[in-house]
Design goal:
Keywords: Membrane, Transmembrane, Transmembrane helix. GO terms for molecular function: sodium ion transmembrane transporter activity. The chain is built from 4 helices and no strands. It is mainly α.
């Protein structure tokens, strides 16, 4: 029986410089492809970790709780109508003041608009 060392020695091929450069180019290309494949795999894993929370809606009650809070706010919100008359008067005065010299049919004339500092 032939030993492993003798088998390896008999199978060894001596390469010329042109054949050696060809094998070096193939090895370099193979290494670059492997590194690129690993980087693409890592990017894919990172991308999937960003998408996973959206795929698994682990907290469906969160949407319901937001809707519940919004409905409570809408129910508890009361409109304060006492100051709306002043606001309507100011808006009306501003509109009629923008008309300039044109006087409405009811004789309403805006003399001045002042800001009140009530708070």
């Amino acid at each position: 029986m032939m030993g492993i060392l003798q088998y390896v020695k008999s199978q060894t091929v001596i390469l010329s410089s042109s054949n050696l450069s060809e094998y070096i180019n193939i090895d370099t290309l193979f290494g670059a492809v492997v590194v690129l494949a690993i980087l693409v795999f890592i990017l894919l894993v990172l991308y999937l970790t960003k998408i996973k929370p959206f795929l698994n809606d682990s907290n469906p009650s969160q949407g319901r709780s937001v809707d519940h809070v919004i409905s409570q706010i809408a129910e508890n919100e009361e409109l304060e109508l006492s100051d709306n008359y002043e606001l309507v008067a100011v808006i009306t005065a501003a509109i009629y003041a923008s008309y300039g010299d044109a006087v409405p049919a009811d004789g309403f004339v805006v003399r001045s608009i002042r800001k009140s500092n009530r708070r």
